[in-house]
Write a structure and sequence with these properties.
The complex is a heterotrimer of chains A (597), B (123) and C (581). Chain A has 597 residues and is an alpha/beta fold. A five-stranded mixed β-sheet of chain A has the order 12-11-15-13-14. In chain A, strands 2-1-3-4 form a four-stranded mixed β-sheet, with helices on one face. Chain A has a four-stranded parallel β-sheet with strand order 9-8-7-10, sandwiched between helices. With 581 residues, chain C is an alpha/beta fold. Chain C folds into three domains: 3-77, Roll (Ubiquitin-like (UB roll)); 100-207, 2-Layer Sandwich (Alpha-Beta Plaits), CATH 3.30.70; 214-570, 3-Layer(aba) Sandwich (Rossmann fold), CATH 3.40.50.1780. The chains are: A alpha/beta (597), B alpha+beta (123), C alpha/beta (581).
Chain lengths: 597, 123, 581
């Protein structure tokens, strides 16, 4: 038995910052010091503070080491693990106080978080089913199969108020009820898991799958029991190799334990799960496209109705939930609907996982109770905006969402509030923008993504978004007129009304929400041919202030386009016709003589 | 696995393991001095014995941890027991056998093993 | 089935449960415009032409696939709806090669009609980047011009879901989405069977048959050439549509008059060689049936089906009748028997055929057809090409007199004419086979069990105490289903008729295109077939062996059916292609 556990994050973020090497070095050092039988090294899922990776936590002391390097390993082992002296200099600085170590849960990053979906992430070894069972794993399934009827299960989920975490927020219990009620012929039904997370910058589902894969299997099995299905599919994108591998291992272990397969816990209920890998099309995260893809066809949405609960996968009744939605289910079953419903706002219960990105200090993954304000998330949990810059807007909901301006900084985050202010919950990407971001450019960025990822089935999305992008491009180049702006807005509303699937219908949102809150920026581009944030290259010009220029020639030597001329010790000049607006000159100038406008 | 009982058995076995990974302040902490002085006077077998026994007895609310030099080198190996809301108890000149008594009497039954504690005059 | 009550534009409408808004509106006398929708074939709600407002719905809905439910309130003509449809068209036009003046579908283009109906007054509104596509002319029978494609996917749906071929589908995605074959292969390199159903359903000029009309005009103008023409049975049931006649009008007489006025030297009828086919095929069947030959015998009249068999069921080519198709038999006889009889050098004959079919364009170039370096048929035209020739020559079709075919290759029986409908070959063969087995001149004529548009039909006949089990399939997906059963031993037949196109040649890939707005509510297969069965019923001679011209042909030239000479001229071989050859 081990007296100490060293948890090293093996999520995608920390893996890419070198946690594999850390684990190897750590194990070797532990072996060398004869601690093999005393100290256990556990590769876990994501802790959330991805910006500080690779992350290592030593229990039972709960010492949180951040940005660990291979060179630090001998010291950690000989000092901490052998002699019991915490290596203070490597601790996450937020946990260090004058009188010693502060508990991790007291740090600003974790204090306001409440981890339900992520409760095991960073805590257990995701490749070991026993560890999941050790944290009450599969207890909910046991309870459901031996003590509850399917209707009771659905009632609990209904009463909990859980809504789909994939973005649209449809009540999960209602979805299950619809599928359960469809008993026309007693044939096969399916339970699907949407693990095709594709919003730029979002990685909530990946973290759950990597850190706690069994929770998804357990929840899907519960769902199978509730609606009367015997087969489940997890549709996971192939770009998540670690998640895929851990799911494979988890499914194998669950089958070995009889937690998947025939007659689970000796009951009449049988259920199995298979993986299907997505090839990276964003649209396959749309439920009907996802099912079409599982069926082996080109991943394209199909019209609804019929809804999947009536006619879904292989034309059979199907429920499809997102990873994070499933991750809540076992806890709801174990702690009851009221426990879950006690968290959050009136219509949005429980917690939501967000991936923080953009202009924010603590980029990473957080799980907060519904109703937390944007200000709390950004200022407190996220540690604020770097370099003391001013908050301008937050983008939620990815390419389907919108930008929330500073005036709504204190709106409690939930499904309905975000919708009301022109954005949406989405799957949980939260990108922070400061005064240096051009909102037209942001809208164009998301449109470019949508144009790229449109499946091409319906006209409004296939051609309409492309035309929108072209109009935005014209605006950022200063070639548009106010009539173009009207035409753009009209086209936005047309696409919203006419596109076939949710992705197309929401594709104009980034444009509409920025038009709503930042119309003056659009107008500045169109009328004044000026980009207020100084982002849109075509509208920028770099100039040298002759009074400040010392003629050091540094700018001229660094200009890749040879656009700067001038004699030594004489003021230099930029030839605007040659300038490619890369900004290299301004960066190099030691006299602040170069400005852009 | 064909029954809930089998599942519960695995859970009970594992809870001691993963239970360590929390910062629960209802936990009793058993701290072993593991500085050079402690190790030299035999703290390692004591630490091993303590952590093994805690696991063996399924004491989910007890964590065994280590610390540096407590400053009473002549009494090493030293083991301190911190119970929530209680005063610290310091056992001195520990051996694996004494450790067993501490686990059985103190940690399980709640009776301090008076014979092993540091004399009041010194504490 | 119960009816559902809804309101459309404020008016009460009652429609059967399970109807779509489009169908309910049709009942109410409202034609909602559609573009991608093809009933039972392409129900994907993709183009968004048919959007309507439904009270309470979050956005506009596609009427073509949206089911009605009790109390629903639908609005089909609000400014929002009309403006949306117009914008959809303008977006489509922004990617469309708008060479309407010279387009083969000008005047018959569904997109063009929609633009006119919906008052698209600014076709340039959304102009922007447009991808230039190369035209694919690698197939023998057709070309594809993606510059005119509207991505409705009707072609890929019919190819995959109806024909079970699936050699064309969407490649790339988003704005770059285009309809093409796997790995951008030319269609001619794929296992496309040349059926032309994609052409028949294409709303625009993106897919069209290869036009050979100029070659025909040139041959007619060449004084050295004797230009003969034959017309397939189903042509007379389809051609009229190109000149405003109702679907299913028999225009045989005017067709003959038109061909004569176009300058063909003789106007003959493929019905003649259909009768000839029966003589050979019935003989072949009775031979296989009595002498333990390979059964079931499967008909070989449909070159689309033959190519399908070669690609997809290469191990069943032995089951195919060795008879050439009526088109090819006609050409072979014209360039031998007829040439000899008339004292014409067969090399000076240009044999033109008018076919409801595009696979015929492929068939005439097969290595295993023709003789002495001469093709049996030189040019195969579709019905559409003929209609364009008539227009180009300025013939006022409806004002033409009704004329008769030339002798002797224009003489036919009722058995020959029903070749154009699914089950017709089987029925014609049964008429002659039963006679041959029983010797009874007054034997049965009507074998109604094998008539009708169902995809697969089965029947068992007792002839002289022997059971003859037959099956008929049309549409290649149906053929696949039937043959798979035969291969797996789940069904067994003596004789099978297969036609490549659903409903047979009356619905062939070479027939005039019928707008989806009509196709979706009319069974053109059944209506056109009726024209042929009416001709049959009115015929004095209804069995192929009674055709006097056929009798003379055997007596004076071929000898017996199945004779050496008959084999040399009228029979052929097949290629085991497999999927990738």
């Amino acid at each position: 038995m081990y007296r100490s556990h060293v948890l090293v994050c093996g999520g995608t973020g920390c893996t890419s910052s070198g946690s594999e090497e850390i684990i190897q070095a750590l194990q070797a050092e532990i072996d060398k010091n004869g601690l093999t039988s005393e100290v256990s090294v556990v590769k876990t899922g994501c802790h959330g503070l991805c910006a500080l990776g690779p992350i290592m936590i030593v229990y039972p002391e709960a010492s949180f080491y951040s940005m660990v390097k291979v060179e630090d390993i001998p010291e950690i082992v000989s000092e901490h693990l052998l002699k019991g002296r915490v290596v203070t200099r490597l601790l996450y600085n937020e946990t260090v106080t004058e009188d010693g170590m502060k508990s991790l849960s007291d740090t600003a990053f974790y204090k306001k978080q409440h981890r339900i979906a992520l409760r095991n992430c960073g805590v257990i070894n995701p490749e070991n089913i026993d560890e999941y069972i050790g944290t009450d794993g599969y207890q909910a399934l046991g309870k459901v199969l031996t003590e509850m009827t399917p209707d009771e299960v659905i009632q609990v989920v209904l009463d909990s108020g859980l809504r789909g975490r994939g973005g649209a927020g449809f009540p999960t219990g209602r979805k299950w009820q619809m599928a359960r009620n469809f008993v026309q012929d007693g044939g096969q039904k399916y339970v699907c898991c949407n693990a095709d997370e594709g919003d730029p910058g979002a990685f909530m589902d990946r973290s759950v799958l990597e850190g706690d894969p069994h929770v998804v299997l357990e929840a899907m099995t519960i769902a199978g029991y509730a609606i009367g299905a015997s087969q489940g599919y997890i549709y996971v994108r192939a770009e998540y190799p670690i998640a895929v591998e851990r799911l494979r291992i988890a499914i194998g272990q669950a089958r070995e334990y009889g937690l998947l397969g025939n007659n689970i816990f000796g009951t009449d209920f049988s259920f199995d799960i298979d993986l299907r890998l997505g090839a990276g099309a964003f649209v396959c995260g749309e439920e009907t496209a996802l099912m079409t893809s599982i069926e082996g066809n080109r991943g394209e949405p199909r019209p609804r109705p019929p809804f999947p609960a009536v006619k879904g996968l292989f034309a059979r009744p199907t429920i499809l939930n997102n990873v994070e939605t499933y991750a809540n289910i076992p806890q709801i079953i174990l702690h009851g609907a009221n426990w879950f419903a006690s968290m959050g706002t009136e219509k949005s219960k429980g917690t939501k996982v967000f991936a923080l990105g953009g202009k924010i200090n603590n980029t990473g993954l957080v799980e907060i109770p519904m109703g937390t304000t944007l200000r709390e998330v950004i200022e407190e949990i996220g540690g604020g905006i770097p370099d003391g810059k001013k908050f301008k807007a937050a983008q939620t909901g990815g390419p389907s969402g919108g930008c929330i301006p500073a005036e709504h900084y204190d709106v409690p985050i939930d499904y309905d509030n975000l919708l009301a202010i022109g954005s949406m919950m989405g799957s949980g990407g939260l990108i922070v923008m400061d005064e240096d971001n051009c909102m037209v450019d942001i809208a164009k960025f998301f449109l470019e993504f949508t144009v790229d990822e449109s499946c091409g089935k319906c006209t409004p999305c296939r051609v309409g978004t492309k035309r929108m992008y072209e109009m935005l491009d014209k605006i950022t180049k200063g070639q548009a007129t106010l009539e173009d702006l009207d035409k753009l807005e009209e086209l936005c509303y047309y696409i919203k009304e006419n596109a076939l699937c949710g992705l197309g219908q929401t594709a104009p949102n980034p444009v509409l929400s920025t038009l709503r809150y930042f119309r003056d920026e659009y107008v500045a581009h169109v009328v004044e041919k000026r980009c207020p944030a100084g982002v849109c290259k075509a509208l920028l010009s770099y100039t040298i202030d002759a009074d400040k220029c010392k003629g050091c020639t540094l700018c001229a030597r660094n200009c890749p386009a040879n656009a700067i001329t001038g004699a030594v010790k004489e003021p230099h000049v930029i030839d605007q016709s040659k300038c490619i607006k890369c900004g290299a000159c301004m960066e190099k100038c030691r006299f602040s003589a170069i400005s852009k406008k | 696995m064909k029954s809930l009982e089998e599942l519960k058995a695995i859970r009970d076995r594992m809870q001691g393991q993963v239970g360590m990974r929390s910062e629960d302040d209802t936990q009793t902490r058993v701290v072993v001095g593991m500085a050079t002085c402690g190790i030299a006077s035999g703290a390692r077998p004591v630490l091993t014995a303590l952590s093994d026994l805690v696991q063996e007895k399924n004491l989910h609310n007890v964590s065994v941890t280590q610390t540096g030099c407590i400053g009473l080198c002549q009494f090493e190996p030293i083991v301190e027991v911190f119970e929530p809301g209680q005063e610290k108890v310091t056992y001195i000149k520990m051996t694996p056998e004494k450790a067993k008594d501490v686990v059985e009497q103190h940690l399980i039954q709640g009776r301090i093993v008076k014979d092993y504690i540091i004399p009041k005059t010194l504490g | 089935m119960a009816n559902v009550n809804i309101k459309i534009n404020g008016m009460a409408v009652s429609a059967p449960e399970g109807s779509t808004i489009l169908e309910a509106a049709k009942i109410a006398g409202i034609d909602i415009p559609t573009l991608c929708f093809l009933k039972d074939i392409n129900e994907i709600g993709a183009c968004r032409m048919c959007v309507v407002e439904v009270k309470g719905a979050r956005s506009l809905v596609a009427a073509c696939v949206y089911p009605i439910n009790e109390g629903m309130e639908v609005f089909t003509n609000t400014p929002k709806v009309l403006d949306s449809r117009k914008k959809t068209l303008q977006l489509i036009l922004s990617t469309h090669d708008r060479k309407c003046l010279s387009c083969v579908r000008s005047g018959n283009c569904e997109l063009q009609k929609l633009c006119r109906d919906l008052k698209v007054d600014d076709e340039h509104l959304y102009d922007g980047e447009r991808i230039e596509y190369e035209i694919d002319n690698s197939a023998a029978h057709m070309y594809r011009d993606n510059n005119k494609c509207v991505l409705c996917r009707r072609c890929s749906a019919v190819c995959d879901k109806i024909q079970g071929v699936g050699v064309i589908g969407a490649n790339e995605r988003g704005f770059k989405t285009n309809l093409s074959s796997a790995f951008e292969m030319g269609l001619g390199e794929t296992s496309c069977v040349s059926c032309g159903q994609c052409i028949a359903v294409c709303p625009t000029g993106a897919i069209s048959e290869k036009d050979n009309t100029n070659e025909v005009f040139a041959a007619i103008a060449d004084p050295e050439k004797v230009v003969l023409v034959q017309t397939a049975p189903a042509v007379r049931a389809g051609l009229g549509e190109a000149f405003g006649y109702p679907i299913g009008t028999n225009v045989e007489g005017k067709m003959v008059a038109a061909l004569r006025r176009l300058g063909f030297d003789k106007v003959f009828d493929t019905n003649f060689s259909a009768d000839l086919t029966i003589m050979e095929e019935a003989t072949e069947f009775l031979d296989r049936f009595s002498n333990g030959g390979v059964l079931p015998l499967i008909t070989s009249c449909s070159p689309g089906w033959v190519k399908y068999c070669e690609h997809y069921f290469p191990d069943m080519t032995e089951n195919l009748s060795s008879c050439k198709s009526p088109q090819q038999m006609f050409g072979a006889i014209a360039k031998s028997y007829y040439a000899e009889k008339m004292g014409i050098d067969p090399k000076s004959i240009v044999m033109v055929s008018i076919m409801p079919c595009t696979a015929k364009k492929f068939e005439i170039g097969r290595d295993d057809e023709g003789r002495d370096g001469m093709a049996d048929v030189d040019i195969a035209l579709t019905v559409r090409e003929l209609s364009r020739m008539i227009e180009r020559a300025g013939l006022n079709f409806s004002a033409l007199p009704d004329e008769e075919f030339d002798d002797p290759l224009g003489i036919y029986t009722g058995a020959g004419v029903i070749f154009g409908a699914t089950g017709g070959v089987m029925e014609a063969a049964l008429r002659t086979a039963v006679y041959k087995l029983t010797g009874d001149e007054a034997g049965p004529v009507d074998f109604t069990e094998v008539r009708g548009v169902e995809g697969i039909k089965e029947a068992t006949y007792n002839v002289n105490g022997t059971e003859v089990k037959v099956a008929v399939a049309s549409g290649l997906k149906n053929a696949k289903e039937l043959l798979t059963k035969v291969k797996n031993g789940e069904a067994n037949y003596h004789f099978i008729e297969i036609m490549g196109c659903p409903g047979g040649c009356v619905n062939g890939g070479g027939q005039p295109q019928v707008h989806a707005s009509i196709r979706n509510f009319t069974d053109i297969r059944a209506i056109r077939a009726k024209a042929l069965y009416d001709i049959d019923a009115a015929s004095k001679l209804r069995k192929s062996h009674e055709n006097p011209a056929i009798k003379e042909l055997y007596e004076t030239y071929l000898g017996e059916p199945g004779s050496h000479k008959a084999h040399e001229l009228l029979h052929t071989t097949y290629v085991k292609r497999g999927l990738y050859n």
